[in-house]
């Protein structure tokens, strides 16, 4: 009797492990570009963005959360088959979310894209437009004088620099 239970337990364990690895999967490809504000170039670093966090939810109840380096063009990632909606969040060099803002410094929603991911297929999502950070809040030396944001005299009196002081307490 004891031997029979051990065998049944092993069979159930093996069946459960094999079922866990049997989820049908497909791949989505996400692409992005920068719009709004000044556009010094296509690269993410030129906009003060280090990484992109992609959060997804499927109509079947699956969730996905991945962070990728913000490389020009985008990336591809595997998820379970289903209808998905993805939200794209920009992250700075410290991994802190960068809240997109419009020209009036009002918060705007993170961009989203949706698509149906098929089994063993590549689904190309519609391109996402990320909002470039304003010059005096982007964490980069825009004018090549060796000074960044609040340390740059060109940012004195700039409303974007004032907003940075409110956030950082400078």
Q: What can be said about this structure in brief?
A:
The chain is of the alpha+beta class. The chain is 17% helix and 33% strand.
Overview of the structural elements:
17% of the residues lie in helices and 33% in strands. The chain is of the alpha+beta class. The protein has two domains: 23-133, Immunoglobulin-like; 135-170, no CATH class. The chain is elongated and about 60 Å long. It starts with a helix and ends with a helix.
SSE order and pairing:
Layout lengths: L1 H19 L4 E6 L1 E4 L15 E8 L4 E7 L5 E6 L1 E10 L5 E2 L13 E6 L4 E3 L3 E4 L27 H10 L2
Parallel strand pairs: 1-9, 2-10
Antiparallel strand pairs: 1-5, 3-4, 3-6, 6-7, 6-8
- The CATH class of the largest domain is Mainly Beta
Count of beta strands: 10
**What is the strand content?**
25-35%
What is Rg? 22 Å
Largest sheet: 5 strands, antiparallel
Separate helix tally: 2
User: Which term fits the overall shape?
Assistant: elongated
Instruction: Provide the succession of SSEs.
Output: HEEEEEEEEEEH
CATH fold topology of the largest domain: Immunoglobulin-like
* Average residue-wise pLDDT: 75
Give the helix proportion (percent range).
10-25%
Count of spatially separate domains: 2
Structural class: alpha+beta
Distance between the termini: 73 Å
CATH architecture label of the largest domain = Sandwich
> Uncertain spans, ≥5 residues at pLDDT below 50?
4-19, 37-41, 162-166
Q: CATH homologous superfamily of the largest domain, by name?
A: Domain of unknown function DUF4458
């Amino acid at each position: 009797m004891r031997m029979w239970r051990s065998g049944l337990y092993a069979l159930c364990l093996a069946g459960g492990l094999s079922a866990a690895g049997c989820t049908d999967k497909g791949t989505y490809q996400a692409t992005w570009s920068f719009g709004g504000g000044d556009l010094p170039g296509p690269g993410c670093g030129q906009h003060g963005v280090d990484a992109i966090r992609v959060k997804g939810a499927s109509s079947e109840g699956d969730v996905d959360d991945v962070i990728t380096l913000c490389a020009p063009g985008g990336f591809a990632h595997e998820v379970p088959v289903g209808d998905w909606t993805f939200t794209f969040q920009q992250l700075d060099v410290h991994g802190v979310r960068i809240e997109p803002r419009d020209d009036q410094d009002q918060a705007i929603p993170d961009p989203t894209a949706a698509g149906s991911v098929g089994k063993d297929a590549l689904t190309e999502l519609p391109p996402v437009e990320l909002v470039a950070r304003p010059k005096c809040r982007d964490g980069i030396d825009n004018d090549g004088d060796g000074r960044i944001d609040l340390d740059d005299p060109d940012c004195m009196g700039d409303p974007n620099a004032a907003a940075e002081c409110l956030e950082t307490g400078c």
